Amino acid sequence: MARKKYSGGFEEYESKLKRVMERLGVKQYKYDWSRNECFIEFTYKNQYYRFEHSLHKAAEHKQNIHYSSDLFAQLVKTLEDIARMVERGIYDLSTWIEGMKTLPPKKQIPQCFVTLGFDNIPSMDELKNRFRILAKESHPDSGGNPELFCLYKSAYEEAEMCLREEQKNEK
Length: 171
What we know:
7 helices; alpha+beta; 3 strands
């Protein structure tokens, strides 16, 4: 059975989010969550920011998260860390974000690979292994999400075709 990573529920982290926003001087902000994802958006020094997290992103980073309240807790904790940097004079949020914008853009890969959690083109073995894991987690017969299972299956079939085509072109 999956366990919560963070003690407390949404109410505790809603309260923490309120305090963080006060520390950053943000007067208005918006947040929401669903079963699989959450977001926090706000304007800081006339610049719009949106922080979002999802079970899919967590899985991509090998985080064993099953509850949206844990996703929300991670976002709030991230904003707490940023507020600490601002308060210590290390970085202003806008300076920190601007620095992130100057990073080189990621190489674009087909969406089918992204859907399966890859940030580069995998080998056929890596693709098969990832699909087995995702299929096992999302298969309806094991209590998974049927829509997510269909999405992964479709993405896997497309990714497999892409890899075969790439191998064919290399010959």
